[in-house]
Amino acid sequence: MVDVLKTHRVLFDNISSSKSIRGISPIFDSSYPQFFTSMAQIKTPVSLIITEPILEIIKKDYSKELRAFLSLENARLYTIKEARIAFIVTDAFTTFSLYKRNGEFDFTTSLISFEPSAIKWGEDLFEYYQKMAVEVKQ
């Protein structure tokens, strides 16, 4: 059996040592606002794209954290109507996860690569989604 929580911790350990973070997420975890704000506070550039439903959750339940994140010079937040992929690209790796055929998000089959070509692919994918997204302002 896959230990999803351990996998999640290992992923965030890798993100914590990154020099830049960009990602897209149609899912939300209560640890995300504090984690990404703390990364931006230590001057790590953070750009995130979230779906409109996730933005509504954050506005409702994490408005203080949202204001703190948006107030940071090196933090950017964008919203997009829908995304069927979750991924993060940093200076060191790219990881992404997809939905299952039944519409559930699949935490157990994330792909990760530390190869420069995969990082470039992740950067290109982020830019593709960023062109469709709208920046969230204070």
What topology does this entry show?
Blueprint: H1 4-16, E1 21-25, H2 32-41, E2 46-51, H3 52-61, H4 63-70, E3 75-80, E4 85-90, E5 94-98, E6 111-113, H5 116-132, E7 134-135
Parallel strand pairs: 1-2, 2-3
Antiparallel strand pairs: 1-4, 3-7, 4-5, 5-6
Nutshell version of this structure?
The chain is of the alpha/beta class and 138 residues long. It is 42% helix and 24% strand. Strands 6-5-4-1-2-3-7 form a 7-stranded mixed β-sheet, sandwiched between helices.
Q: Overview of this structure, please?
A:
The protein is of the alpha/beta class. 42% of the residues lie in helices and 24% in strands. The chain has 5 helices and 7 strands, in the order αβαβααββββαβ. Strands 6-5-4-1-2-3-7 form a 7-stranded mixed sheet, with helices on both faces. Helix 2 (32-41) runs parallel beside helix 4 (63-70). Residues 1-5 have low confidence and may be disordered.
Uncertain segments are 1-5
> What structural class do the secondary elements suggest?
alpha/beta
Main pleated sheet: 7 strands, mixed
Query: Number of helix segments?
Result: 5
Distance between the termini: 43 Å
How many β strands by DSSP? 7
Reading side by side through the largest sheet, how are the strands ordered?
6-5-4-1-2-3-7
Helix content: 40-55%
| Strand and helix order | HEHEHHEEEEHE
